[in-house]
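Study the following:
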Amino acid sequence: MKLLVIRTSAMGDVALTTPVLRGMRKQYPDVEVVLLTRSSFKPFFSSMEGVRLFFPDFKKRHKGLMGLVNLYKDINRLGQFDYIIDLHDVLRSKILRFFFSLSGVPAAVIDKGRSEKKNLIKGKNRKQLKHSVERYCDVFFRAGFSVIPENAPSIVPSEEAMATATGLISKTDELNIGIAPYARHKLKMWPEEYMVRLLGLISEKHKTRFWLFGGNDEYERIAVLQSKVPGSINMTGKLNLDEELALMSRLDLMIAMDSSNMHMAALTGTKVISIWGGTDLLSGFGAWMQPENYSVSIGIDKLSCRPCTTYGKGDCRRGDLACMKWLTPEMVFQRLIELELF
């Protein structure tokens, strides 16, 4: 049997397929799996045996409707597929599913729980929703595969990348803490001066080297932050993704916003303290394999407008970003002490 699994974005969501795909390979080793995803995400899967990667070219050959026709033809050159596992359910994947349906190939599609998430934002319920990893497993189940996701590091960097990371970090009495201070949307970002204060408190407690992570578009902001934090190193743009993942796997701890860096560090097996503002763990996007008390936020009982967004988009309805500004550096530092993370 051969499956085509589809998930092409976003970065954190693609990373979260790794515990499911590893579970699938262990439990169903005779099933061939082809993953349709972007080439930039290859390091997530480079050490995963039994998963074949197919990279679309959405800028040229596979652009637009005729491009999707080409994509369908190109995928079919890999052989006959028995099932489509759509973990994305966007326009592109809907069209691909339609093409495959014309040749009788069935599909299982993700239920993103949109109505549940909408009710959570409206305050109509406060229950914990399914994690994205669980939703991915549900899709495989509907196709006839009862997958138990990997409950161990599911992103394993290459040996070459690990050698690079080992050369950067030497295990001494010095703590190595990763910092991912930014996110795509402002409702998910802690004030910069709060992060500077938190890192100062940590440095007063223990000798620490801070490794600053971010996208290339954040380089200048992180450079400014680095100038305010003694013992910090701006890693933006200095490593490829595989090496960055390897460095994350060598850290003692990562402190991150609700972002792709949070997911990537957690999936390499590193402890992650996540800071939450307008979004919330209840939506099902928390760091995989991390204890609930590793996430820090202002409680919904104290700030009833939380969560006000599922993905971080939009503006603060109160106008004061209380969800982030009420969460002081001292509160986050106290949580670190309570958890005995250093």
In short: The chain has two domains: 2-142, 161-338. The radius of gyration is 21 Å. Residues 161-338 form a domain with the Rossmann fold fold (CATH 3.40.50.2000).
